[in-house]
Amino acid sequence: MESVQATKQRFGIIGNDLKLNRAVEKAIQVAPTDISVLVTGESGVGKESIPKIIHSLSHRKHGKYIAVNCGAIPEGTIDSELFGHEKGAFTGATQTRNGYFEVADGGTIFLDEVGELPLTTQVRLLRVLENGEFIKVGSSKVQKTDVRIVAATNVNMFEAIKKEKFREDLYYRLSTVEILLPPLRDRKDDIHLLFRKFASDFASKYKMPTIRLADDAVTLLEKYHWSGNIRQLRNIAEQISVLEQNRTISAVTLHGYLPNMGSNLPAVISSGKKESDFSNEREILYKVLFDMKADLNDLKKLTMELMQSGNNQEVQKENEGLIRKIYREDNEEEVRFEEPATPSAEVLQIPSASTLSKDEDKYHFAEEIEEEETLSLHDKELELIKKSLERNRGKRKAAAEELGISERTLYRKIKQYDL
């Protein structure tokens, strides 16, 4: 059996990370068998190297090796690409075509981004894995193939199964052995090693001196997150090799090539208010004004009762305990304030009973005005709550903050108005 170090050297795999070595070791161990293998890991970690190792160290090494990017083939043609089609099977099928599974008979097929396969294609693939049978598009003839399948994906397969985007039975057939390649950020000791290798390759390619990193640049390189992994590191090494005149790269220079690290300055948050903010404040102000209007209407009603009664003293005693409700949201509690004793007729400038009888015609219109003004209060409050809920997509917490009330009060209003 070939050693891990010899295999890495043969396939150009750089690094001494324990997880990386374990992945290569597993590939060497499963290579002589026909076990289906699923290679997992983030995009850009070098998953394509594992199928090549498996094929080269297997008894199929003299057969064909075909790599298929499942995510790059349109859904309407992927069945034809993988399994072939008969002449006239669909518009444009002017001749019979052999698919990858027929061409690679006796060899290995690498299905990259297998998580992107349509569900209908997954059913066909499952049949190939179980008994080696497939049917061309537009044909009824069952054909046999002897192909080893190695698949790779950067998708969380359990999440895809949960969302019914990938068949569970197919997952377990593909992942008889699963090989996980670690992300570059978990291989900190390998980052500078890889960078030096890429810098040397690009120096030879573009016929220029090799770039070197200063100590502070090496530290920055190892601290960076590398969301694009080895592919991103290689891209940055190529950029610096081509663009920089000074072949010794400092941390300051490297800083400018790393995404999301272009500036040390804090993000500037605009303090200016948007037009929508003013609109929200205007609606809240309207609500406050309508609440005040309701209080004023209560006071008008009391005044009318006093003016229409022949005995002001009795009416004053009956209304002495009137409580005016004012809602103030503080720590999500509703607070009530009691109205002091009803103002006297003198304060309210209420005419006496004798004068009232003479001037009562002057006040006949007041009751009609009061009724007209109070009719829109309920509708306006309901309209404000509806608008806020629609704008915040039904999120009560955000709507309550916008209206300037607590979430509990908003919930009570929703129940009250049966929204």
- Overall pLDDT metric: 81
Q: How many beta-strand elements?
A: 11
As a whole number of angstroms, the C-alpha radius of gyration is 39 Å
Number of helices: 18
Indicate the proportion of strand residues. Answer: 5-15%
Describe the strand arrangement of the main beta sheet, using strand numbers: 2-3-6-1-7
Structural class comes to alpha/beta
Order of helices and strands: HHEHEHHEHEEEHHEHEHHEHHHEEHHHH
The separation of the N and C termini measures 72 Å
Q: Give the overall shape.
A: flat
Question: So what's the oligomer here?
Answer: single chain
Architecture overview:
The protein is an alpha/beta fold. The protein is 49% helix and 9% strand. Strands 2-3-6-1-7 form a five-stranded parallel beta sheet, covered by helices on one side. The protein has a two-stranded antiparallel ribbon with strand order 4-5. Strands 8-9 form a two-stranded parallel sheet. Strand 4 (133-135) and strand 5 (142-144) form a beta hairpin. Helix 9 (188-206) crosses helix 11 (229-243) and helix 17 crosses helix 18. The longest helix has 34 residues, at 275-308. The protein is flat, with a radius of gyration of 39 Å. It starts with a helix and ends with a helix. Mean pLDDT is 81; it is low at 262-276, 322-351 and 353-375.
